Structures are given as C-alpha cells and as structure tokens.
Amino acid sequence: MKDDTEKLIIATLDKIRHFLQRDGGDIEYVSFSDGVVYVKMHGACQDCAYADNDIKGLVEVILQEEVPGVVEVKLAN
C-alpha cells in the first residue's frame, strides 16, 4: 500500500512541478510517514520567503485531493 501511495505522490508532484519551475524552483519528494509528505524545495524556491505558502497553498491542497491518506506536507530537514 505504501509503495502505491508513494508512486501516486510522486506522480502528483510531477503534475504540479511546472508551477514551481516557471519561477525557477523545483520540488523533491523525500518521504511519506503517518499521513505527512516530506519534500525539499530547490532552486529559487529553496530560499524563497513564500516556500511555506507554496507548500500549504498549492502542494498540500493538491496532494490532499489526489492522494488518499495525505494529511499534511512539510519541508524535510
């Protein structure tokens, strides 16, 4: 089940990646545990003051709609 969920998370991130890339950024899937998806931001998004807004307002909302079991998205350390 986890493998299928992770595949769906990655596929969904691939679908929304272009929104971040148009501003010179990117997103990397790190892990999924207890309903939380951990990601890393790259490029312009890495140090952007709006990275948290992008994660909560775009990435988290879409993942919650597309992937059963996703509760939250957080930046990985």
Cα radius of gyration in angstroms: 11 Å
The count of β-strands is 3
Classify the beta-strand content into a percent band: 25-35%
Strand-pairing-aware structural class: alpha+beta
Q: What percent of the residues sit in helical stretches (DSSP H or I)? A: 40-55%
Indicate the CATH architecture: 2-Layer Sandwich
- Which stretches are poorly predicted, pLDDT < 50 over at least 5 residues? none
CATH topology-level fold name: GMP Synthetase, Chain A, domain 3
Relevant CATH superfamily: Fe-S cluster assembly (FSCA)
Shape: globular
Overall average residue pLDDT: 88
| Overall structural domain count | 1
Number of helices: 2
Text of the CATH class? Alpha Beta
Question: What is the N-to-C succession of helices and strands?
Answer: HEEHE
Biggest β-sheet: count, sense, barrel?
3 strands, mixed
